[in-house]
Amino acid sequence: MFSASKSSNNETSDGVGTSKATGNELKCEPFLHTMEDGHVVCNGEAINSSCWTVCIQGFEKENETIGSFECQEGGEWSACFSGDICTICNKVNGSCVQQPNNLQSICLCNLGFAGNGKYCEEDSDLDGLPDVQLPCRLKDCKIDNCPFIPNSGQENNDGDNLGDVCDIDDDNDNITDTKDNCQFEANPNQEDKDSDGVGDTCDNCIHIPNLDQTDSDGDGTGDACESSDLDNDGVEDGDNCPLVPNPNQGDNDTDTVGDACDNCINVYNIYQTDTDENLIGDACEDKSDADQDGISDSVDNCKDIPNGDQLDSDSDELGDECDKDKDGDGVLNINDNCPLMPNKDQADSDGDNIGDVCVLDTDGDSIPDSQVPHASQSCTGTKYRDICTIHCLEGYEKENLPSGIYSCEENGKWSGEDTNCLPKDCGILLHQEPFVELQNCTGTNYKDTCDVSCDMEFNKTISYVRCGSDGNWTTLSGACFSGDICTICNKVNGSCVQQPNNLQSICLCNLGFAGNGKYCEEDSDLDGLPDVQLPCRLKDCKIDNCPFIPNSGQENNDGDNLGDVCDIDDDNDNITDTKDNCQFEANPNQEDKDSDGVGDTCDNCIHIPNLDQTDSDGDGTGDACESSDLDNDGVEDGDNCPLVPNPNQEDNDTDTVGDACDNCINVYNIYQTDTDENLIGDACEDKSDADQDGISDSVDNCKDIPNGDQASLETPWFAAGDGCNTTFFYHMNDRSNKTEMGSLAVEVKTVDQTWFMVFRKAGDQGNIWHRGTIDLSDDYPVNKFLNKTDFSLYQEVNLDGVGKVQKPPKWMVYDNGREIVQTVNGNPGILISFTRFGHVDYSGTFFISDKDDDDIAGLVFGYQSNRHFYVCSWKRKTQSYNLQANLTYPRSVARRGINLMVVDSSTGPGENLRDALWETGNTMNQTHLLWHDDGPQWIAGVAYHWRLLHDPDSGRIRVRWYRGGKLLSDSGNIINKRYQGGRLGMYVFSQEGVHYSKLYAGSPKISNFAMSFNGSIGGNVDLGVISNLLGGSKSGSITVAAWVWIPGPNGKVTCALPPINFGSSHPDLGFLTQSSDDERNWVLRKLKTPTPKTGPSADHTGSGYYAFLETSGIPIGSRASLETPWFAAGDGCNTTFFYHMNDRSNKTEMGSLAVEVKTVDQTWFMVFRKAGDQGNIWHRGTIDLSVRHLSLSPS
Fold first, then answer.
1. Separation CA 170–CA 191 (nearest Å)
2. In this predicted model, what pLDDT tens digit does every residue of 997-1028 receive, in sequence order?
3. Strands laid side by side in the 38-42 sheet
4. How far apart are CA 159 and CA 150, in angstroms?
5. Cα(353)–Cα(341) distance, integer angstroms
6. Are 453 and 436 in contact (CB under 8 A)?
7. How far apart are CA 748 and CA 758, in angstroms?
8. Which of 425, 730, 1127, 1134 has the greatest count of CB atoms below 10 A from its CB?
9. Where do Acidic residues bias regions lie (predicted)?
10. What is residue 1171's three-state secondary structure?
C-alpha cells in the first residue's frame, strides 16, 4: 500500500537557497513508483487528479475494483499480481521465492547481488545496492554511492555522487571530516566559542561545553543548556522520569521512579537494578525457568516443556507444546482425526479415521485421494501457490525425501509427487550380550520385536527388545542378570571381569580364545570366533568358517561351510575367484559386454565400462550410466552436491558448492582445495591449534585444553523410563578461604534435544561426601564412547603424492566396518575413520596373508592431517629403499621390528615424506622416532593382536603386540604431547594382503598412569600416597624420573655441557658413551684412516684424536651413535663440533651424519643432518641448545 502526501506553498530555507512549491492550492507530490510488477499513470498532481496502475506483461491486478486513485489524503494504491512471476526472475544471480502466508511469489537476488530480482548485479559490500546502475526504478536498482563500504541508507550529506562513508569532506567546506568540528554542516572558519570540540554551526549548546551533544527531548537544544524540563512534559523540578515524558507523574509503587520509566512498576525499587540487562528490574524479575527455554515461568505459556518460540496456534494462551488441543476445535489431539486443522464435527466421509479436512485431492476429480498411511499433513491454505506437505509419523520415513509436497497451481488443482511413509529399519541386531539369545523375531522394522531368552544360570530382566522410532533397537544391556556370574566363568581360558560403572560382571575369554566366557576354546586367527563349535547359541560360540585367516564378519557367499576368505570359488561357478570376473555371482560363461573386467551378471552398468563400479546412491545402477541425479535428492541438472542428497540446494557462500558437501560453508572456495586432507578447506582453515588436539582454535570448544573428541566426561547412550534415576556421591571442600571452590554440574540430553543442566553445586560444601540423586524418567542418552568401531565410512589418504613408483593402496571393508583388507603392493597410504578421539583404546587383529613380500603395515592414531599423525608400523626384514635403479646413497633404511613414530611433516605427501616413513629413525622436518623394538618380525599366515592406549592429557602412549595370548612386544609408557587426539586408521607401505579384523575403538578405563612433576629451587615435589595410585596392588609399580636444576653463578643456567674432546696424547671418549641401540661403534684414531682414499689425514687441529666409522664390509643402513649424559641448558647454550664426510670414489656411497636431542618430556628429535659427500675438509657445526634438560646424541 502506498499513500499520497501533500505539500503547500510554504517557503523553506536550508541555509543554501530557498524553494517554493508552485500554485496556491494543496497538491499531491509526484508519485515515486516502487512497484516491481507494474507502473502508475497519472493525469496530474492537483487534488481530484487521477492515477491508475498498469501491470506489466504476465501480471494482472489482484482486484479490478482497486488500483485507480485520486489525489486525496488517505488514498490507496493497489498492488499488482502475477499469474507466474517466476518467469521474469533472474535465473543466474537470483531466484523466485514463495512468500510465507501469501499467494504471491517474489523475485529475489542471490546473496552477493542486488537489484529488483529481475535485474541483479554484483553487490560487493553486501548492503543491498548494486555496484552499477540497473535498468529499473526501485531504490534497490540505484547504483551504490559507496560500493565497497556498506551503507544501506546511502546517506549523502552534500548531494554529490559519493556517500558519506566514502566522502572525506561531507559538507564541502574544504576541511576533511577527521579534522572538521562540524562534519555535516559547512563551517570553513571552524568557530567554537565553548571550546568543546563541536563547532558553533552544529553545536546545540554554543556557550556551554557539551562534547556528547545530548538532547533528550530532541528539540535541538542540548541538555547542558536546557531548562530543568529535559523531556518537555511540563514538569520541571522533581520530574520522576526526567528523560521520559510523563506529565501525570504516575508512580504506582511510590518509589520516586515514575511508572513511565520504572523497570518494576509494582515493586518498590528506587535503585532500578537490572543485573542481567533485560529491562526487567531484579526486584520484580521472576528468575525461575523450569524448562530452561529462556522464558521466565511467570510469562511462559508452557513452563514445563521448552518452547522458546512460545508458539500458540489457537491463541488460547497455552503453548502448542503443552496444548492437548492444538487446533482449538474442542477435540483433544489424541482423539482428533485431524489434530492440526480445526474440525469440530470430525467429519470422516470414508471412515478411515482421517478427517475430511486432512484429505488431499491431488488430481482435482473431487474424489479425495487415499490418505498416506502413517502420515499427517500441514497446509498453508487452499488457494493458488499454497503448499500442503506430508509428514511421516514417528517411526516412519519418506520413501523419497523430496516427495510428498503439493502446491496449488494456477488452474486451481494440486500438483506434486506422491510419497509413502515406510517404517524405519533397525537392521539385524549385531551386538548381542553373552548368555542372551534372541528368538521369534517378527522382523527388523519399527515396532518389530525379538523375544529374549537367557541361559539357565541367569534371570531375565526384560522379555523382548523392540525396534524403536529412532531406527535403533532397545538396549540388551543387563537383559540377563546373575547374582554372581563369576561362578560360571571359564577359569582356564577365560576370566570374570567387572564392567566399568556397572554392578554386573561379565565372563570373557582370554586373548587367543573365543566363546561366551563360560565356554572358551582356541581362536587361532584372533577374529573372535572359536576354531571348534561350542555348546552355546551366541554368534561368538559358532565355529569359525575360516579358522586360520581373520574374518570376524564370517562372510560366506555360497552358504557352504567355508568362509569367503578361505574359499577359492565363492559363487560355485567352477571359476576360481582370482580369474572370475564376478566373484560373488555365478556366471560360468564370463560374459562382459563392455569389456571393463566386470562380468555382466554383476556389472552395475553393463554397456559402459566402469571398473570401479561406483554407485553413489546405492540404487544398483552405476554412476557411469545413472541419470543426472546421482544422489536421488530430486535435483538433476546443476545439483550443487551431486553425490550428497540436498534437495534444498543451500549454498551459503554462493560458490556453487552446496553446504551439504562444502568444506568451507561460509567462505567462497569453488575448487574445494584441502591440501592437508583434514576435511577443512584451505580457504577457511585456521591453522592455529594452541592445544594440539587437531581442532582449529576457531572451532575448538576448549581451545586451551586438549579435547580431540570435543566432549566432556560422558556416559554412553542409555534408555530411561518412569522411575529411572541415578545416584552419585560428590565432595567439594575448600579448606582455605572458602571462596575458591568451583562448580559441579550434571547435564543430560535426549535424541531430540541438546545438553541441559539437571544438577549443579557451587562453592564449598564442607569436608564430607554428599549423595546426589537425579530423576531420569525420560530418554537422556549421551553419545561419546564407542563400543563398536565403524570404518564403513572412511577417508583414503595417499602419502606419496607423486605416485610414479607404485600404485596407491586398495582397501576392502567388511563386517560393517570391523574388518579391513588391503590388497595392493603400493605407495604408502592410510585409511582413516571420521570419528575423532581424545583418550582412546584402539585394538584389533593384524594378519598378513602375502607370503612373498616383507614390508610395512601398521596403524595410525592421532590423525590431524596428512602432515600430522602418529603411526605404529611393523617391518619384517631390514631393507633400504631401492625401488629406483641408480638411487644414490644414503638411502632410507627400514629396520626389522615394530616402531612408533610421530609424523610432523613440513611438506606433506610426496617423496620427502615417503622416504622418511621408510626410515626407521628421525628425519628432519618430517618424522621423529619414539620407540623401536628390533626383535620381532611378522610371519605370514600368523594372527597378531595389538592394543594401543593414548592419553592426550598426560601424553602417555603405550602399544602392545601379542601372538596368541603371549605378549610379543611392549613399548611401555612413552610420553609425547605432540598431538592431543585425532582420528584412527590403518597404514601400509609396499605390502599387500594385510588384514585388520575384530576392530575396536573406545574410551578406555584408566588402569595405569604416567606422571611428571616440576620442582622448584628450595621446594619439593609431593608424590602423595603411592598406594592410592596403585590401588593397593602389591604387583603394581611406579617409576619416577628425577632431575636437578643447577643454576650458574648469576642464578641462570647457560650450558652445563663441557667441551667434547677425544684426547690429544691418548684416545678418550670423555663423558660420551657408545649407544646401546645401534649396530656399530665409533672408533677413535689419530692420523689417517686405515682404508686408502677415505676419511681425513688428521683431526681438525692436525694433532689430536677423532672418532670415525669404518664402513667397509658392513651392511647398508648400519648405525653408530655416541650419547651425552643429561645436562641442563638455558638461553645462550649451544654446542660446536667438527665433521669430515668425504667419498673420494664415486661420490654416491657416503652415508649421513645426524645430531639428535631429547628433553624430559619428548623423545629423540633431529636438530642437525648432513648426507652424502661434503668434500675433503673439516666443517664446523653449531647447534642452538636453548632448551632445558637435553641429552645429545651424534650418530
1. 18
2. 989 887 764 444 444 444 444 444 444 444 44
3. 38-42, 50-55, 68-70
4. 18
5. 14
6. yes
7. 7
8. 1127
9. 214-239, 311-320, 614-639
10. strand
Residue with cell 613408483: 805
Q: What does DSSP assign to residue 914?
A: H
Q: Give the whole-angstrom CA distance, residue 137 versus residue 3.
A: 18
Each residue of 1089-1109: pLDDT tens digit? 887 777 888 888 888 899 988
Nearest Cα residue to 959 out of 1023, 1020, 871: 871
Distances (CA, A) of 468 to 465, 676, 937, 1021: 9, 40, 49, 55
Angstrom distances, CA of residue 895 to CA of 689, 848, 937: 34, 18, 10
**pLDDT at res. 144:** 94
Residue indicated by cell numbers 561379565: 506
Distance (Å, whole) CA 27 – CA 1: 20
Burial 182-218 (b: 16+ CB within 10 A, else e): bbebbbeeeebebebebbbbbbbbbeeebeeeebbbe
Q: How far apart are CA 398 and CA 849, in angstroms?
A: 45
Residue 874 near residue 938 (C-beta atoms within 8 A): yes
Give me the pLDDT at residue 9, please.
Answer: 34
In sequence order, what DSSP letters do the residues of 1067-1085 get, joined into one string? ---TT-EE-SSSSB--EEE
For residue 563, pLDDT beyond 50:
yes
Pick the CATH number of 375-423 from 3.40.440.10, 3.30.420.10, 3.40.50.2000, 2.10.70.10: 2.10.70.10
Among 181-185, 583-587, 612-616, 1110-1114, name the one with the lowest average pLDDT: 1110-1114
Share of the chain above pLDDT 70, in %: 77
Domains 794-1002 and 1051-1194 fall in the same CATH topology? yes
- Res. 817 pLDDT band, cuts 50 70 90: confident
Q: Determine the Cα–Cα distance for residues 321 and 340; give it in Å rounded to an integer.
A: 13
Instruction: Provide the 10 A C-beta neighbour count for residue 887.
Output: 13
Supply angle C-alpha 801, 804, 806, rounded to 5: 95
Query: Mean pLDDT throughout 1180-1190?
Result: 69
DSSP, res 1041: -
Show the cell assigned to 770.
Answer: 554428599
Average pLDDT over residues 689-714: 63
Considering only residues 145 and 308, tell me which one the structure prediction assigns the higher pLDDT: 145
Beta bridge partners of 459: 481
Using a 10 angstrom Cβ sphere, with 0-12 exposed, 13-18 middle and 19 or more buried, the burial of residue 761 is: middle
Could you report the per-residue pLDDT of 505-536, keeping only the tens digit for each?
Answer: 788 898 899 998 999 999 999 999 999 999 88
Question: Where are the domains positioned within the chain?
Answer: 375-423, 436-481, 483-560, 568-627, 794-1002, 1051-1194
Q: Where does residue 886 rank: exposed (0-12), middle (13-18), buried (19+ CB within 10 A)?
A: exposed
- Check residue 372 and report its DSSP letter: P
pLDDT band at 25 (very low <50, low <70, confident <90, very high): very low
Q: Pick the residue with more confidence: 361 or 743?
A: 743
> In CATH, what class is 794-1002?
mainly beta
Predicted pLDDT of residue 1092: 77
In this structure, which amino acid lies at residue 299? V
Cell of 1: 500500500
Whether domain 1051-1194 has CATH 3.40.50.300: no
d(CA 185, CA 707): 57
pLDDT value at position 1019? Answer: 46
